[in-house]
Specification:
The chain has 3 helices and no strands. The chain is an all-alpha fold and 88 residues long. It is elongated, with a radius of gyration of 15 Å.
Length: 88
């Protein structure tokens, strides 16, 4: 995952796509648990990305309270995404 907050959710999906391509090329069997966790993290990344754009739209239209609420929710989402990583 990138350290850049805007690209954090997108870079996770890009890395996941790369890993899946390598696994397919090398015929590596992926455990069901790993597939399940990838789906969960992918959805969390998608939610984080939507929250980011919701906040940018709220800021553009002057809804500062929604921008603040979005910030707290996105931070919580990003924290959950980073939790299982060893390098953070």
């Amino acid at each position: 995952m990138s350290r850049n907050a805007f690209a954090a959710s997108a870079s996770f999906i890009h890395g996941q796509g790369y890993c899946q391509a390598v696994e397919d090329l090398m015929n590596i069997a992926v455990p069901k648990r790993a597939k399940f966790l990838r789906v969960i993290w992918g959805e969390m990344s998608r939610i984080h990305s939507h929250l980011l754009w919701l906040g940018l739209a709220a800021d553009a239209f002057g809804f500062e309270s929604l921008l603040c609420i979005r910030g707290a929710s996105a931070k919580r989402c990003l924290t959950l995404l980073k939790k299982p990583r060893a390098d953070v």
